[in-house]
Amino acid sequence: MPRSLLGQVMLVLALGLLAAQAISGVLLYRAAEERRDAALVSTLAFRLAMAGERPDRAERRALRERIFEEGRRSRFGDDSEIVPRRSLRIGTERSADFPLNEGEQRLGQYEEALQETLARQGIATGEIIVARRLAGEDGFLASRPRMHDRFAGQDWAKRPVLVAGAQQADGSWTVVRIAEPRAPRSIAGTILLQTLVIFLVLFGLLYFVLRRLTRPLARLTERVGDFASNPDRAVEIEESGPEDMRRLIAAHNAMEARVAAMLDEKDVMLGAIGHDLKTPLAALRVRIESVPDEAQRARMASSIEDITRTLDDILNLARVGRASDPKEPTDLAALVASLVEEYEDMGEPVELRAHRKLVAPLRATWLKRAVRNLIGNALRYGGTARVDVERDGNMAVISIVDDGPGIPASQIADMMEPFRRGEASRNRATGGSGLGLTLARAIAEQHGGSLSLANRPEGGLRAEIRIPV
Question: Taking the complete model, does pTM exceed 0.85, yes or no?
Answer without folding.
Answer: no
